[in-house]
Amino acid sequence: MFDALTERLSGVFDKLTGRGALSEKDVDAALREIRVALLEADVALPVVKDFVKTVKERAVGEDVIRAVAPGQQVIKIVHDALVGLLGGEGEPEGLSLTGEPPIVILMAGLQGSGKTTTSAKLARRIQTRDKKKVLLASLDTRRPAAMEQLQQMAEQAEAGFLPIVQGQGAVDIAKRAVQAGRLQGYDVVILDTAGRTSIDEDLMAEAKAISDVSNPRETLLVADALTGQDAVETARRFNERLPLTGLVLTRMDGDGRGGAALSMRHVTGLPIKFVGVSEKVDGLDAFDAKRMAGRILGRGDIVALVEKAAEEVDQEKAERLARKMAKGKFDMDDLADQLNQLKKMGGLGGIMGLLPGMNKKMQAQAAAAGMDDNLLKQQTAIISSMTKEERRKPELIKASRRKRIAAGAGVGVPEVNKLLKMHRQMADMMKKVGKKGPKGLLSGFTP
Ligand code: GDP
Questions:
Q1: Whose C-alpha lies nearest to ligand 1, atom 2?
Q2: Is residue 205 part of a domain?
Q3: Is 229 in the pocket of ligand 1 (CB under 6 A)?
Q4: How many Cβ atoms from other residues are within 10 Å of residue 157's Cβ?
Q5: Which residues form a coiled coil (predicted)?
Q6: Do 143 and 253 share a domain, yes or no?
């Protein structure tokens, strides 16, 4: 899967990294090619549009990291956007299995999607990794063969299997399974519901009725990644009727174009929890957005390089500030720097709480000094209408200079006074906290 997409993107990236400077035109051209590559990989159009928009916005808004080539930075931005599209950074979302046993997992999906195979794979995974006892039950009353298939696979998975009772309806089987799970000491009961070749009202009504009586903790939709946009549409339809908690994409080992995998999360808002990677009972992997993005882009080296360079830039800034603070210096340029960082991080409120050595009173002082987001822009404007000298030695700024600065920034003198006061208070705080050890403070101040 993804081979064609990987190759196309690789071509785009080669062009980007082949040159020193990038103009907006270069970036636009690259984005156009990325757009075509995604569409050819069968990614849904709204998803492609949003993706390209995100990358463009970040490419324009991002600070330039001098240590890396602009093309490399663009690759990192595309990488991050792809990780976001697939579900974001962080540990893969597993299953919620704690609480009063038995925990019920309901499996839904069309016939042939790999639902039965996935049920058995999941049972095996939960037994071996989570060390929990699993009971499998087939609710496919119309297809005796499907029931037998699950029984065989349950054996392979070394999981329990609910005996088949001829003539019993799906809802009753679900009730019996939960009861058997409770009486026989199972931690988890997996219900493999019936599938149809297409979505119909009967199928949905039955699944809903089973869900209502079994109160599942997880309801997973199994979808075949090879069916592309059909899989996405199926997921959307099921999601309208059932309280789905996640998706499993099967046949990721096949050579589809991958569009379904890339569109799923965005279209349904549901996390992809697992992917099927073989027909065997151990062929189920936890889905990891970062790893998947890395595989698709195949530029892990560049991504790591840019991450490291970005850290170093922040580190340098932090160290520079630390040296100044240690000397009890915190001038207007530093304040402007901090305001910029705050803007990037979405305001001061949250940051204040992060600062070690910052007590409630100091936080209240900061709040009283008017450090809210709306003011950030205005404050930056005031600082930029100061002269270099004034920025370095704010104590020079007396009445007449205040008037000039206010006029330059298009504000009143009281606003300038407020900023000067805020700077003084911050400088005081810095001095106090600085003595306690600047490192801790800075870790709070840099993103
Ligand atoms: P169900 O009708 O939804 O229960 O589908 P099945 O579980 O019977 O699966 C249909 C076919 O797909 C079977 O031949 C499975 O072995 C195969 N299959 C299921 N998941 C995967 C997968 O992740 N990779 C591959 N290669 N085959 C799979």
A1: 112
A2: yes
A3: no
A4: 25
A5: none
A6: yes
Residues in binding site for GTP? 109-116, 192-196, 250-253
Which residue of 106, 115, 117 sits with most ligand 1 atoms within 8 Å of its CB, as the best mutation to test the pocket?
Answer: 117
Query: 398 and 333 in one domain?
Result: yes
Does residue 225 sit in the same domain as residue 350?
A: no
pLDDT for the residue numbered 60: 77
Q: Does any ligand 1 atom lie closer than 6 A to the CB of residue 156?
A: no
Binding positions? 109-116, 192-196, 250-253
Please tell me the predicted confidence (pLDDT) of residue 300: 74
Is any atom of ligand 1 closer than 6 Å to the C-beta of 324? no
Is the same domain home to 147 and 275? yes
Banded pLDDT at 362 (limits 50, 70, 90): low
- Between the CA of 251 and the centroid of ligand 1 the distance, in Å, is 7
* Position 21 pLDDT exceeds 90: no
Q: For 141, how many CA atoms within 13 A lie in the half-sphere containing its CB? A: 14
CATH of the domain at 113: 3.40.50.300
Pair 213, 268 in one domain: yes
Structural domain boundaries enclosing 368: 327-445
Domain check: are 107 and 198 in the same one?
yes
Q: For residues 137 and 261, state if they share a domain.
A: yes
Identify the burial level of 345 via C-beta atoms within 10 angstroms of its C-beta, where 0-12 means exposed, 13-18 middle and 19 or more buried: middle
280 CA to centre of ligand 1 in angstroms: 9
Segment among 210-219, 362-371, 413-422 with least mean pLDDT: 362-371
Using a 6 Å cutoff on CB, does residue 233 contact ligand 1? Answer: no
Instruction: Please state, in angstroms and rounded to a whole number, the distance separating the CA atoms of residues 37 and 235.
Output: 24
ipTM for the predicted complex: 0.98
Tokens at 376, concatenated: 């950030």
Domain at 365, CATH number: 1.10.260.30
Q: Are residues 225 and 337 in the same domain?
A: no
